[in-house]
User: Fold this.
Amino acid sequence: MDCLFCKIIAGEIPCKKLYEDEQVLAFYDIDPQAPVHFLVIPKQHIACASEIDSENSQIVAHIFEVIAKLVASLKLSDGYRVVNNCGVQGGQTVPHLHFHILGGRDMTWPPG
Assistant:
């Protein structure tokens, strides 16, 4: 598979790892859009949120549990944003389900 995030999971491409367990990997974004900007991705390849179904949906709950732990450890108590882009028109540049967590500054609304 020629997926950038699968290559990061396999250790073929380095990342600045923040957290890892059997199901997910969290790492800092290489082009941060906020003082704190990291991604949480499932180790199982799921192209985007449109592919979530009864067979794999439990990973989303686990991802949000990990996000809660990480934002607490990073002291983002003033708030943060979780972003998931799905599909090219939705701004998804890597076709592997991932959640951006952005914090450390005020977020604007509506987002781009």
